[in-house]
């Protein structure tokens, strides 16, 4: 995991004439502690060099549908109806959980909070001891925690303890407060508190289901659920059963998804190796598989949304877990950092970039390479209009790789005005100001969507990771008095909850199995093979390139 994180934060999107591993400018978020030391990130300066067609006249740009209308909210993914006779507190969906400052202004205090180790300012919870925050999570007869708080604490608590440790403490407090361990306890009190405990467990299993892959978590959950279901109310048993079945389905789907990823990874091969052993086995290119750029953009969106859907919110936190200063033993996730789905999504971005470069460098004829470049420019533009910014940036990244950008004779035949506009939209200057403006427009369009197609927002994922990384680096987890810095975690939860809203969108486009199969499994060139194909297409221009060409021909083709 440490190696992956180093690669993630050290890998930059390529500028022209670069391979995908360059440094970029460090653009810290406003309001965060800035570091004087320049940090390597996953972002390069795409706009740091001149465009491929600075001397060409720009063509008119197709207007996108990012207009601002009155916002509405997605329905809550949690249970909509009260579980028992007592109505549950009404909690907002992800898209309405946080206001513009990152706080829920209606967060209220329970009777014990004034002396319970929690610090408020203007009715906003800013800090507290870990034990007090845990107690604030557990409902009682007169209190149920706000959903904003539940999400924020469950997300951030793993920086200080394992989820199974938190679940153990929650179970203990529930039994202590509500006397669930006493068969002779007040049945009326049980009737009032059981649905609230069940609601808390439901929110946990719905929002952070991957926590329950740990047998210790599942054991605690089953124990507490059994105590609730063993009461006289039949409704409790039914809802406990529904909660467990839903959780098991989610975990089964995750296991199946991981098996598919493993199968794809095991069958992947370098394209040059395949061509040498079976030269007739790869005659198709991506245009023969799908000649329509809009259809290709739709299928890319299918891949993006499927992979986004399996990323758990906790993975954003677990990717950056460090040692808790008050924990003398170890970081709470030193055993293993569970970020496999996040890593798989980053790997997909890299694959798409290399696929684009491979398809461009493969054709022998210059006019075919130029046609391929124009095809991907059109696909990228359709991705922008759909709201698929991650595929858009992966395509731009692939076309900016050195083996592609050095093909000057090929680019001379390409109408690049549309490409220049796309690069302008994703220009990293001013902390990706143009992209962030487009993303806000897409997010607003999603909130006011009249069709499922307008709901799609797929962010440039590496930039989202970068924002969360700098938020984590710029603010301490604990204050000097040992309190948990909850103000930081409000902001963290705000960013992650927005992502949660976007990843729940179902892809409205019809699946094309043939195109998807090609995108996910067709072999792509390695970086060396890309350079060799590029030199074979347009010969070396200097002694350095000539020496590299000879070396690559010798090592990859066995020729002198």
From TrEMBL:
Residues 292-540 form the Ras-GEF domain. Gene3D superfamilies: Ras guanine-nucleotide exchange factors catalytic domain, Son of sevenless (SoS) protein Chain: S domain 1. Transmembrane segments: none annotated. Residues 121-248 form the N-terminal Ras-GEF domain. InterPro entries: Ras-like_GEF, Ras-like_Gua-exchang_fac_N, Ras_G-nucl-exch_fac_CS, Ras_GEF_dom_sf, RASGEF_cat_dom, RASGEF_cat_dom_sf. GO terms for molecular function: guanyl-nucleotide exchange factor activity. GO terms for biological process: Ras protein signal transduction. Keywords: Guanine-nucleotide releasing factor. Pfam families: RasGEF, RasGEF_N. GO terms for cellular component: plasma membrane. This is Ras-GEF domain-containing family member 1B isoform X1. It comes from Heterocephalus glaber. The gene is Rasgef1b.
């Amino acid at each position: 995991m440490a190696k992956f994180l180093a690669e993630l934060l050290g890998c930059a999107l390529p500028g022209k004439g670069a391979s995908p591993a360059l440094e970029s400018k460090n653009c810290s978020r406003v309001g965060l502690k800035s570091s004087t030391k320049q940090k390597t990130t996953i972002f390069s300066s795409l706009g740091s060099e001149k465009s491929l067609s600075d001397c060409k006249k720009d063509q008119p740009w197709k207007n996108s549908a990012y207009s601002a209308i009155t916002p509405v909210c997605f329905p809550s993914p949690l249970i909509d109806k009260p579980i028992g006779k007592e109505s549950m507190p009404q909690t907002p969906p992800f898209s309405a959980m946080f206001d513009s400052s990152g706080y829920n202004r209606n967060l209220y205090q329970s009777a014990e909070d004034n002396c319970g180790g929690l610090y408020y300012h203007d009715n906003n919870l800013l800090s507290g001891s870990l034990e007090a925050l845990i107690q604030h999570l557990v409902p009682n007869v007169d209190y149920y925690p706000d959903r904003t708080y539940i999400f924020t604490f469950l997300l951030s608590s793993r920086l200080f303890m394992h989820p199974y440790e938190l679940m153990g403490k929650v179970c203990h407090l529930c039994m202590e407060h509500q006397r669930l361990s006493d068969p002779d306890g007040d049945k009326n009190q049980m009737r009032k508190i059981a649905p609230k405990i069940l609601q808390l467990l439901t929110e946990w299993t719905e929002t952070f289901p991957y926590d329950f892959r740990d047998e210790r978590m599942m054991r605690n959950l089953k124990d507490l659920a059994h105590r609730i279901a063993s009461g006289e109310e039949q409704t409790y048993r039914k809802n406990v059963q529904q909660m467990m079945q839903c959780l098991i389905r989610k975990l089964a789907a995750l296991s199946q998804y991981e098996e598919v990823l493993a199968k794809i990874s095991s069958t992947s091969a370098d394209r040059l190796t395949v061509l040498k052993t079976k030269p007739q086995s790869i005659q198709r290119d991506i245009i023969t598989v799908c000649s329509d750029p809009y259809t290709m953009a739709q299928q890319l969106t299918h891949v993006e949304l499927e992979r986004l859907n399996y990323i758990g919110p906790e993975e954003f936190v677990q990717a950056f877990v460090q040692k808790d200063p008050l924990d003398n033993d170890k970081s709470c996730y030193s055993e293993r950092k569970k970020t496999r789905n996040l890593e798989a999504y980053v790997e997909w971005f890299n694959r798409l970039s290399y696929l684009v470069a491979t398809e461009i460098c493969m054709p022998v004829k210059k006019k075919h390479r130029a046609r391929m470049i124009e095809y991907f420019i059109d696909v990228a533009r359709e991705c922008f209009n759909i709201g698929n910014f991650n595929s858009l940036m992966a395509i731009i990244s692939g076309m900016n790789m050195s083996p592609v950008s050095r093909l000057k004779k090929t680019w001379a035949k390409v109408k690049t005005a549309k490409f220049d506009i796309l690069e302008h939209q994703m220009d990293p200057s001013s902390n990706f100001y143009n992209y962030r403006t487009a993303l806000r427009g897409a997010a607003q369009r999603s909130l006011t969507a009249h069709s499922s197609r307008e709901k799609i927002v797929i962010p440039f994922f590496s930039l989202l990771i970068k924002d969360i990384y700098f938020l984590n680096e710029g603010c301490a987890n604990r204050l000097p008095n040992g309190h948990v810095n909850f103000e930081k975690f409000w902001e963290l939860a705000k960013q992650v909850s927005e992502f949660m809203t976007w990843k729940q969108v179902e892809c409205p486009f019809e699946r094309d199995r043939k195109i998807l199969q090609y995108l996910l499994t067709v072999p792509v060139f390695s970086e060396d093979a890309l350079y060799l194909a590029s030199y074979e297409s347009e010969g070396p221009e200097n002694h350095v390139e000539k020496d590299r060409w000879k070396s690559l021909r010798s090592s990859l083709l066995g020729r002198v």
